[in-house]
Amino acid sequence: MSRKIKLIWDFRGPASAKTAEHHEIHLKEYIIAEKLPLNITGFEIFGEMHAIAYMVVTDENMIAVRDALKPHRGELANEAMG
Question: How much is the mean pLDDT over the chain?
């Protein structure tokens, strides 16, 4: 069983929430275009000046997605995600 990795893009500033929300749209489009096995995305707002968009990928797809989309960071996804 492969691990799930959460790739994260950080956005800062007064427009961070809207930017993260919009970025998630592009992540969903990428998943469809590349026919990735997982379809787990989202965005979270941590305050007026910080938000993230994220996408969960498998070990097998992580390097290709990382190289193509350049996330700011990644972490192991918890088991509740998909």
Answer: 95
Indicate the pTM of the whole model. 0.93
What backbone phi and psi angles, to 5 degrees, belong to 81? -85, 95
Residue showing tokens 């918890």: 78
Contact status, residue 48 vs residue 12, Cβ threshold 8 Å:
no
- Give DSSP secondary structure letters for the chain: ---EEEEEEEEESTTHHHHHHHHHHHHHHHHHHHT-S--EEEEEEEETTEEEEEEEEEHHHHHHHHHHH--SEEEEPPTT--
